[in-house]
Amino acid sequence: MSFNDKYEMVCGVETHVEMATKTKIFCGCTTEFGGEQNTHVCPVCLGLPGVLPVLNKEVVNLAIKAGLALNCEIAQFSKFDRKNYFYPDLTKNYQTSQYDLPICKNGWLDVTVNGTNKRIGITRAHMEEDAGKLVHSGETIMTSSSSGVDYNRTGVPLLEIVSEPDMRSIDEVLAYLEQLVQIMDYAGISDCKLEQGSVRFDINVSLRLKGTEQFGTRTETKNLNSFSSVRRCLEYETERQAEALDDGQEIIQETRTWDEGRGMTLSLRSKEEAHDYRYFPEPDLMPLVIDRDWVERIRASLPELPAAKKARLQSHGLSEYDAGVITASRAMAAFFDQALARINDAKLLANWVMGDLSGLLKTNGRSFEDSPVSPEQLAGMLTLIKKGDISGKIGKNVLEEIYNTGKDPETIIKEKGLVQISDESELGIIVDGILAANEKSVTDYQAGKESALGFLVGQVMKATRGQANPGLVNKLLKEKLAQ
């Protein structure tokens, strides 16, 4: 009996999002990624004696915006707390976080998996400071003989978003996380560079027999920073727990770590409960009072979010798939919208954005954010195709020239003599010549061999260096072959 036949997975995720502020949550140190180790620090974020934190207001603005984007209630009164634990990357031996009065609570996200809609609850979202980073001598903490600590990341503002344990499949988990990251990106909460650790996932998972209601004992695997790692982690951990349960073993509530190279989770330490952290209110920070006007100002600044943008693109005639691909990337969606404002043909535009332009960018290791082809240039080229000035085949060459030179499509077409031949009399002379030179293909077509027509079209296009209007070529050939 397979795992899927016998057990049901129960999963919730804690997502840690680095907020896109220029300075840290309680001091003026830069949040810039990288830099020489332990250079983006000061007495406040190092927790030296005699210093006091000062809350960065932009962190609160971004937390409110994120909460609104996630359909959360925004608390009128919240506070910071000290979360006490002892670990080398924590300079003060406590983390300034929020416990019982978070800034956001009772939110939700709707996801669609295999055509089925499901609402995933969001318990809370709260502000906190990031810890430092352990730099291991080996590939993982389990294979290292020593570790150093880089405190540059200490004090970077985080928003921890805690879901309800509502997810019952790996596909649901990934759909939730992908949409969550999209929203954080669209709303400008974070740069969402997963490879730099801007978003990190803690995966809580347990199993229960199908048809039962009581949750099983959960494990928490910390600090995953890619969707592929989340998938592989869940695949491994659910199978590990299923095998243990089948062997009559008890699952231990514990914190585990993900070994990317070996593709497995490893036990790290027993899982702490809230009372283990000895939370108490942060005495150096005043409680936070947020009036409704503040919330409404932030609400008014919310941009169009992915779900709304996807629905709008579908209203322009795009398929659900095409709209989903385009809105999956904020940069691609922004490029598409700017081009769509200049050409009223969403399907044609989507084909070129998702196809030829995406291919060019990918081949050259670039993205839509730094595309050498502007939305205006692409829209201009597609307008020329719609008018019949150039063919789609010529358009591919023009696009490459725009990419390489930055010139406008009209200039490229003029300089290279690429204007499409749509003059019927001029094309008629060329078609006559092709028919005269290919008597066998003419005979084949007239004998019922339809493929011969494609060959003849190809010969005309070759003779005109791809500049002949393909539709007109087909029309002329059929007329002349019917005579």
UniProtKB/TrEMBL annotation:
Coiled-coil regions, chain positions: none
Pfam family, one: GatB_Yqey
Record-level Gene Ontology MF annotations: ATP binding; glutaminyl-tRNA synthase (glutamine-hydrolyzing) activity; transferase activity
EC number: 6.3.5.-
Residues of the Asn/Gln amidotransferase domain: 334-481
Gene3D superfamilies xrefs: 1.10.10.410, GatB domain, N-terminal subdomain (1.10.150.380)
Reaction equation(s) it catalyzes: L-aspartyl-tRNA(Asn) + L-glutamine + ATP + H2O = L-asparaginyl-tRNA(Asn) + L-glutamate + ADP + phosphate + 2 H(+); L-glutamyl-tRNA(Gln) + L-glutamine + ATP + H2O = L-glutaminyl-tRNA(Gln) + L-glutamate + ADP + phosphate + H(+)
Signal peptide, first to last residue: none
Keyword Transmembrane helix: no
Broad class of enzyme this protein falls into: ligase
One Gene Ontology biological process: glutaminyl-tRNAGln biosynthesis via transamidation
Keyword terms of this UniProt record: ATP-binding, Ligase, Nucleotide-binding, Protein biosynthesis, Transferase
PROSITE patterns attached to this UniProt entry: GATB (PS01234)
Assembly description: Heterotrimer of A, B and C subunits.
Biological role: Allows the formation of correctly charged Asn-tRNA(Asn) or Gln-tRNA(Gln) through the transamidation of misacylated Asp-tRNA(Asn) or Glu-tRNA(Gln) in organisms which lack either or both of asparaginyl-tRNA or glutaminyl-tRNA synthetases. The reaction takes place in the presence of glutamine and ATP through an activated phospho-Asp-tRNA(Asn) or phospho-Glu-tRNA(Gln).
Family per similarity comment: Belongs to the GatB/GatE family. GatB subfamily.
Descriptive protein name: Aspartyl/glutamyl-tRNA(Asn/Gln) amidotransferase subunit B
Phylogenetic lineage: Bacteria, Bacillati, Bacillota, Clostridia, Eubacteriales
Gene of this entry: gatB
